[in-house]
Structures
1.
Amino acid sequence: MPGTIIVGLDGSTESRAAAEWAAREAGLRGLAVTLVHVWQPVPEPMALASFLGDETHQHWAERIPREAVEALKTRHPEVEVTVEQRNGAPAEVLLEAAADAELLVLGSRALGGIGGFLVGSVGQSVVARTDRPVVLVRAGGEVSDGRSVVLGLDVAHPDDLVIAFAFEEARRRSAPLTAVHSWNLPSPYVNSLALAGGYDPRDDIADAQAGALAEVLKPWREKYPEVEVAEKSGFGSPAGRLIDESKEAALVVVGRRVRRSPFGVHIGSVAHAVMHHSVAPVAVVAHD
């Protein structure tokens, strides 16, 4: 649906948090929100069981979507909120519903402790197969006005769709943008450290990588002069550094390269790790 943010709603705390995030985003963008409640038919023996009677079915099929819409309209009266109830496999239904939407928003639940967050099979399938941006939202997150938008950037293969998405999110929020680029020493450099008379090439490589990051961002700084930009180029794991930055972020933006292969779908190791461990909501932007 053009001009719409789609939310997957299943009645969980996580999906309600996703709906709340989507309504706030819709207010910033001037868009409508559609809650898609997917109802999977229950096998007949289960449907006939006493613990899955008519009242339970009616609660899931009618009350939860209705109450979610009413709550969002109360908190966000300026946003048009509607609900659609569809039958079928959740991943397939959400992919179809979001085919021409501006954004798809899903919830993800905490695993507890240091375990991170669980992006279930439905969420992973949708992220891996859609060409629309997908935002994964955690339940219980704090309102993050004023916090930065964090952009994970590969200076060797920068993509305009991913960068533009991050800059637009920062502009809408009047928030700063933190561009994070990570690099590691190629193995020949590591092996040569002991042979180079104590010379450590990391300083030179760090300067070159920081310069490359600045060069990639230069036209975007000019296009978005109102966005304050911080550049962070450093040695280490790309996913690990983004997860660290997520602790003080409003949103983390990562790219997912579309790989059209007969051998199945692919998310990418960095996006996959950030999806599961970022504290802030994560936007996964598909690109060629």
Note: The mean pLDDT is 85.
2.
Amino acid sequence: MYFQLLGETQFWRGGQEVRIGPQQRRLLLAVLLLNANESVHRERIFQLLWGDPLPRSATGSLQAHVSRLRAALGLDRGHAASCGVALRTVGAGYLITVPGEHVDAHRFEAMVSRAQSSDAAEALALYGQALDLWRGPPLSDITNERARMELCLPLEERRLDVLTDQIDLRIELGAWSGLIAELTALSSRFPGRPRFAAQLMILLYRGGRTADALEVFRRVRELMDREFGLDPPGRLSWLETAILRNDPVLQEDRFVIGGRYWGTAVDQDGCRPMQGADKNFASRRT
């Protein structure tokens, strides 16, 4: 038995996909699985499935969805129970009990947690396995805008955080194959995440392409001004200055370990944090 949320919402049993039913029922399953082993109050479910104004039939419809979801999961025949899966009413809410390894979103987090306590080579492999669980945008079959904002956006942000950490490790370990092209696309697609631009600048500089690295900064500065009315983060500006002066710290492995280039700006010997390093997304103009 396996549940997939990192892409379309799907349920598999015995190697076969089992149809859950209409979109609201799939969304109900997703809400319960993302909060697996915790009770979800029915008011929270009402808001995600129907929003305001709440239809008069919401309570009866929710009860019907839960009943049919139990049937789809095989709880009425004992299939799910044999795998440690249960769906029950708890007070004014519902709780699904499921082993974490049976839900791709929870497997993803477990692999990331293991990676964070592993050496660099093993961590890189674990990050790769975790990211491979993603088959597309999370809950891609759900069109409910509120649900997408509240459920999907945090999942996608988490994926990008992990991808950023994985890229740091690839730079540290010299696994650069295809990375410049990948970062070029990422920095263009996600201008609100200038750390991708920082990683690209470091790679280009290390590859002897100083002019291209500085061009990345120029494009980011123009884009952030146009899209957000902001200046680039202080750490990105510091990186531009370090490239201009050919700072030797940019070539050191320790400069990228754990995202050090982004966690705090560093002085020219790469050892002491700069006072007043900007920790915000970007520098707001005064």
Note: Residues 176-286 form a domain with the Serine Threonine Protein Phosphatase 5, Tetratricopeptide repeat fold (CATH 1.25.40.10).
